[in-house]
Write a structure and sequence with these properties.
By secondary structure, the protein is of the alpha/beta class. Helices cover 31% and strands 19% of the residues.
Length: 368
Amino acid sequence: MKKIFLASDGDINETRVALVPADIKKLIELGYEVMVLGGAGTKAGYNDDQYTSAGAVITKTLRKGYDFCDIILRVNKSSDIKGIRENTLHISSFDVFSEQALVTKYAKAGINLISLEMIPRTTIAQKMDKQSSQSSLAGYYAVILAASRLPKIFPMMMTPSGTISPAKVFIIGVGVAGLQAIATAKRLGARVEAFDTRPSVEEQVKSLGARFVKVDLGEMEQTEQGYAKELTAEQLEIQRKAQAKVCASSDVVITTAKVFGRKAPILLTKDMLAQMKPGSIVIDMAVNTGGNVEGSNPDKDVTLDNGVTIICGDDLERFLPKDASDMFSGNMYAFFEHFWDKDNKTLIIDENDEIMKSCLITYNNKIR
């Protein structure tokens, strides 16, 4: 397997591309052949001439791409698999837990499916981890978005007419996105507080100059890959009560708490939102998986009667398509390089490989 077809998603809201010309050039030097759907990189700032100069062949139709390739690469899943040949390897983001019917459809069609979300968070797989690279950009942009919508400035400012106090920013969830949000808010001069169910991240929060909000939830654990484990109903209620006071005094609240494969927990209730100051900004980065904020909407901003605005914060990396595509592409190059057999000039599907066995979802007409 060495013929890669770089396809687009068909999603008008998607701005990223899964491979950029610089990485395609390196893949071709390894021994891969690459075909690109015309216009696939336009929104990310890469035109067809740049792909051609890198050594790729441009096609105007999916059909020609599907006929050419044995590997399809795109940013997100495709529900339309018509024309994809049996035994083709399809690589993309793919929420396999909420798309079980579609996974079955791929298996029945004999399409081998790799879900990029399922790449393990291990040292050797770190360079392939698109989850981390994209979440980092999303965390950064969440703060920039909040700063642009907040009716006050972030930093303290001393003026002849008086001193302006710094904005107060509260980050809930200190994963990759949360850490980047903390760092960005601090750089902009805000006073930052953060909370996570894992006490082990307190030092990381402090190292970025923020205050860690301590809430006694009892003994807390994390998954083998470092994710926070789901809270019980009782623990969630304790967390909400402790956070209510912090939210009430905050100008910006950013929630990043997602539970992989499950509905996101509600962290901010309507009662908590009602206590916040007029003009405050809340960004819910888990809105498409149920939302951390009661009343958030994946399709539009919501302004409450008290003047608090809830902003949909999912897929914020799409607002930074150039860097998001460069990082995504770097992750993909690392993946293709890792599984490249130099002697036989082909990509190997090794079911015993620690990385491959984690992310290979369908293989040989079966769901793994």
